[in-house]
Amino acid sequence: MGADTGRGNPGTEQLPGEGPLPGTAPFRRSVAEHAGEVRRLLEPVAEAVAARVEELPLRAARGRILAADLPAPHSLPPFDNSQMDGFAVRTADLRRAASAGRAVLRAAAPIPAGPAPAAGEGVELAAGTTAPIMTGAPLPAGADAVVPVEAAEPPRFPAAGSPVGLPAEVEPGQFVRRAGSDIAAGDVALRAGAELTVRHLGLAAGLGFERLTVRGRPRALVVATGDEIVPPGRPLAPGQIHDANTTLVAAALDADGWDVAVETIASDTPAEFLDRLRAAAVSHGTDLVLTSGGISQGAYEVVKLALAERGVAFGSVALQPGGPQGLGILRWDDGTGTPMLAFPGNPVSTYVSYEMFLRPAAADLLGSAPRREADGVLTAPADSPPGKLQVRRARLLDTGPPARVELVGGPGSHLLHALAASDALAVLPADAEHLPAGSPIRVLLLEEHGPRPHRTPDPRET
Ligand SMILES: Nc1nc2c(c(=O)[nH]1)N[C@H]1C(S)=C(S)[C@@H](COP(=O)(O)OP(=O)(O)OC[C@H]3O[C@@H](n4cnc5c(N)ncnc54)[C@H](O)[C@@H]3O)O[C@H]1N2
Ligand code: MOO
Description:
Elements: E1 27-29, H1 31-50, E2 53-57, E3 70-71, E4 81-82, E5 86-89, H2 91-96, E6 102-107, E7 129-133, E8 145-148, E9 163-167, E10 176-177, E11 188-190, H3 198-206, E12 211-215, E13 219-225, E14 229-230, E15 241-242, H4 245-255, E16 259-265, H5 270-284, E17 288-292, H6 302-307, E18 312-317, E19 319-320, E20 324-331, E21 337-343, H7 347-366, E22 373-378, E23 382-383, E24 389-396, E25 403-407, H8 416-420, E26 424-428, E27 434-435, E28 440-445
Parallel strand pairs: 1-18, 6-7, 13-16, 13-17, 14-15, 17-21, 19-24, 22-25
Antiparallel strand pairs: 2-12, 3-11, 4-10, 5-7, 5-8, 6-9, 18-20, 20-21, 22-28, 23-27, 24-25, 24-26, 26-28
Helix pairs in contact: 1-7, 4-7
The chain binds ligand LQZAQKY5 and molybdate ion (MOO).
Pathway: Cofactor biosynthesis; molybdopterin biosynthesis
Protein name: Molybdopterin molybdenumtransferase
InterPro entries: MoaB/Mog-like_dom_sf, MoaB/Mog_dom, MoeA-like, MoeA_C_domain_IV, MoeA_C_domain_IV_sf, MoeA_linker/N, MoeA_linker/N_sf
């Protein structure tokens, strides 16, 4: 199974793992039962996050969730204006002056786009005249249509007072963009709960908003444990390995919209581990602590030793990889608590734990992207441990349905290279031991997490 047997010996005489651990009794659970516990653990996190909002400049708000309905402070367009470079006309004047389908009006002073005359000095189109008008310029009072310059005779802008030939039959409203025809002042421009897209930000800018109030993000503290763990970028001494787990979990959390802090606590001493964990949790103001490693049956399982008396339960779930798990509200000395999940240390076990437990609960309660699933069929036989749901790394050879599924690498939970080559997780049911080629299975798709599909309310629907 590729499972490791716990931590190295830090050189003490007394094995700290000896004897029963005080505190919460160990559990044995099915995957569904543990998923339910993780969901319950996340409920107060979702409540805490829902109570937080922050104001962000528009571009910083992309991808965030709008906290409250956003009413339009003014209409769009704010005033009637021309859709074309052309001539503002009174269509009734054209009809009155009609001769053989054309009409001749006198050119008034041109109206550029830009600052409008002060209130009370509004431009009015005198009867029998037509005003050269530029795209976006305010329509003069009395005008009810625009004729594009190409349709005039001559097809260019003349000096004021010159005759302009125009079509006699023009529909009222032609090439006029009416005030409020996009959105009227006071109407809801964006609804609370919208995941802000580039297009939403454009609308907010067009309505004059410089900043938007968005929901706070859930905060997670991701902790690597173990004195053999070295952050990437540093050389390895004999017996050491690079920390892959915090990157796996933190990058997945990033993609799901969490505000993530990462800490490596390379101490196998419970008291020191707890002190450093507390300091990191306080400085990040975290909603959830996520650890990896230090929870199975070894003599120096620091996470278990430090936290089992503090409200965190440890036990096993009928899952491979990801069997050892810990979960609870971590009670600090001052009586406050922080929800925490302890994932097993093997990298694939940590990643599978995230995908099986935290991601679905977060999608449900915090609104992050739900993972897609599909029906698949095995292209080769596979064995699975009795009584455990086995999650194998896999590639989809086509989209099916059912998709043809090729398992990648063995079941070992240390196989990072095979994990990197996979784009799906194949779920081999707990009651299956030998699955022949062609067996139907469920697959969990591991595409990069994207925006929540079709979860943004349409503000135009009330
Ligand atoms: N006697 C038993 N031994 C083990 C059992 C068991 O039931 N009985 N379960 C095995 C299983 S399954 C797993 S999974 C592991 C889980 O152990 P821990 O959570 O205590 O993890 P560690 O012992 O700390 O580490 C396991 C393995 O993973 C490597 N590791 C740890 N952290 C990282 C990291 N941040 N990046 C990369 N790799 C990491 C560590 O070096 C070990 O190789 O226990 C089995 N043993
Ligand atoms: O390697 Mo262990 O298989 O559960 O998570």
